[in-house]
Amino acid sequence: MSDRESMPGSCDRTRRAAVARSVSPSFDNAVTGYFGTRRPSISEAEGSHAAYVAALRAHGTEVTVLPALAEHPDCCFTEDTAVIVGGTAVIPNMGHPSREGEQRAVVEHLSDRYEIDRMPKGSTLDGGDVVFYDDRYLIGVSTRTNRLGAEYLAAKAEASDYHVELIDVPGSTLHLTTVMSSPREGTIIAAEGHLAESQLGPLAEELLWVPNSETYAANTIGYSDDRVILSAGFPVTRQVMLDAGFSVTSVDMDSIMQADGSLTCLSVFTE
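^ that's the sequence the OP posted. Answer follows.
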């Protein structure tokens, strides 16, 4: 099987399998600074996480949920801990010091299926800065992902015959996936006020913009057959997606949002 044939279902949006992790009992101490308006609630986050996992399973994804890590408040955001490239799981040095160590259990879970490749010292990357877009990896250079980390992952992707685009992520947002996603082939949805038309327009056959006031909802999980999971409570974005022909499932993510987490943050799609 070639690297291209073994790519995770996040590229073709089949999303057959994913690994997630339960909400930490210290989640109320998660790192915040963008969306949060109040201290995160552990019990509410657990409810949102359960609804999220149920939504993935309803769309046909087999979800493995790893146990929470009490010493890591942000541990439910597993997306940041690994990036799948062909038959390899690239394990980054996390962009925030408090998150180092979250990778360990994810590595143990993935090591039966994937070769493990740890990023070199000095490089940092969060998986939240990676958008899987058809035959491309869109990699953000941000406050969490430095250029060394982005270029290391880019080289891995290019070696597996994938195209790569490096995108400078503005300080107005945490990660690239915070303000954009790709819900179907050729389509990018992005929030106004963060990335420029000149950055995304040349990449997309269809570019859907949502208002800055609904930035959070630009993070979507697309499935084949124009199915998409959205965060609940963002009516303009929901209508944009309906008008574009999507079948929409909504999940209440407010408690996760308080810790600056979004839909894609909660899992690594592995098949």
